[in-house]
Write a structure and sequence with these properties.
Blueprint: E1 5-7, E2 12-15, E3 18-21, H1 24-35, E4 40-42, H2 43-50, H3 58-71, E5 79-84, E6 88-93, H4 108-121, H5 125-133, H6 135-138, H7 144-154, H8 158-162, H9 168-182, H10 186-198, H11 205-221, H12 225-242, H13 245-262, H14 265-281, H15 285-301, H16 305-322, H17 325-342, H18 346-363, H19 365-379
Antiparallel strand pairs: 1-2, 2-3, 4-6, 5-6
């Protein structure tokens, strides 16, 4: 979320190696103002957004603004919270002067790219976000791939459906995934898959390859078993051609989900075992989280309820810790769809339904789906 990085569990904000600790409502108020920086809000607006379930007074806002200003004083070169006469308050983000790239070592940009690639491959979302947030301070500019990809990673999903600057072909892959991961109705996702595959030739080659693999889980979730198993062949050909551990694990995660939803637990466990051998050599955290969840779902099939719950929760927390928002959403979706299909654990299903509702509200699933369907209608 821009230059500031956030620790939601401890109410801390971070910038350039410095940390400021806030109280919960200070944190919520600052995060809202920062999200909508350079825009003025009345006291009533802020009361509605930050204290929606309480009955505070206008003075509550003024007191919190006063305390925030004191705590943020050392970052006054970065931002200010201004009083807008007759309106309320506005957070103003100041322009940052970055060092000239020409003044930096000639290997600097190449080293940054290597860091991005490493962090991406290892599933280190927090590190990616830190680099993304501090481009101006560090004196570099991410290429268009990572600039777009990082929006996806941090959950800036509205940009993909609202910003009309990039051509639709540049966003097609992301639009498909946004719909796929936010939709519980598998038949609706199947329609979006057909649209995406029809237009896949306009995507970069690596995205076309990923679509061949992702199609497995879409067919599996729609219970089109034969199509899903048939899709294993072209997906496996992609993996062999690309020859990447990341693609191998991605393919095996899709294959595992297929077997889990078909109730073929032995086959699923065999694929998980092969994947864990790769992860011992290359501990990619996103994939570790996904396969931990899958191991837990296998234990549900084995009727080992307590162990299943523990592993499912553990895997989801690993995904949460990576700061890759899409993987967290996909993980929650996988758990919920599995429990809904098999009915092994009504209590944990309710738990994850609640989590799904919270994610849906935070990332506006209904709004994203509506906008994506409108985009599809305009391209047909």
């Amino acid at each position: 979320m821009g230059l500031i990085t956030w620790s939601d569990d401890t109410y801390q904000i971070h910038y350039a190696g410095e940390t400021i600790v806030l109280l919960p409502k200070e944190y919520a108020l600052f995060q809202f103002l920062y999200t909508w920086k350079n825009r003025a809000f009345s006291r009533n607006d802020l009361l509605d957004r930050v204290w929606s379930l309480e009955e505070p007074t206008d003075r509550t806002v003024d007191d919190h603004i006063y305390r925030l200003r004191k705590k943020l004083q050392k970052w006054s070169h970065l931002l200010t919270i201004d009083t807008v006469r007759g309106v309320g308050y506005r957070l103003t983000l100041k322009e940052q002067q970055s060092p000239s790239p020409s003044a930096l070592n000639s290997d600097f940009s190449e080293n940054i790219k290597k860091m991005l690639t490493t962090y991406h491959g290892m599933g280190m979302g927090a590190a990616l976000q830190t680099l993304y947030a501090n481009q101006q301070v560090l004196g570099f500019q991410m290429d268009s791939f990572y600039a777009t990809y990082l929006r996806f990673v941090v959950g800036d999903f509205g940009w993909f459906v609202e910003d009309k600057t990039p051509p639709i072909s540049d966003k097609l892959f992301y639009l498909f995934h946004l719909y796929h991961m936010t939709e519980i109705d598998s038949q609706k996702t199947l329609e979006i898959l057909h649209w995406a595959l029809k237009n896949a030739k306009s995507m970069p080659k690596n995205y076309q390859d990923e679509m061949q693999i992702t199609a497995i889980s879409v067919y599996a979730q729609a219970k089109e078993w034969e199509r899903a198993k048939k899709q294993l062949l072209p997906a496996r050909e992609v993996v062999e051609r690309v020859n990447s551990p990341g693609f191998q694990l991605f393919f095996q995660a899709e294959e595992t989900l297929l077997y889990l939803l078909m109730g073929e637990v032995d086959e699923a466990e065999e694929v998980i075992q092969r994947s864990e051998e790769i992860l011992q050599e290359l501990p990619m955290q996103r994939e570790l989280g996904s396969f931990t969840i899958a191991r837990g779902l296998c234990l549900y099939h084995r009727q080992e309820l307590a162990k299943a719950r523990r592993l499912v929760d553990e895997g989801l927390e690993v995904l949460r810790s990576t700061k890759f928002v899409p993987h967290l959403i996909y993980g929650a979706q996988m758990i919920l769809l599995f429990l809904k299909d098999f009915g092994y654990d009504a209590e944990w299903e309710r738990k994850y339904q609640k989590m799904w509702a919270e994610l849906s509200e935070e990332y506006k699933f209904d709004y994203l789906q509506k906008k994506i369907r409108a985009i599809i209608s305009s391209t047909i």
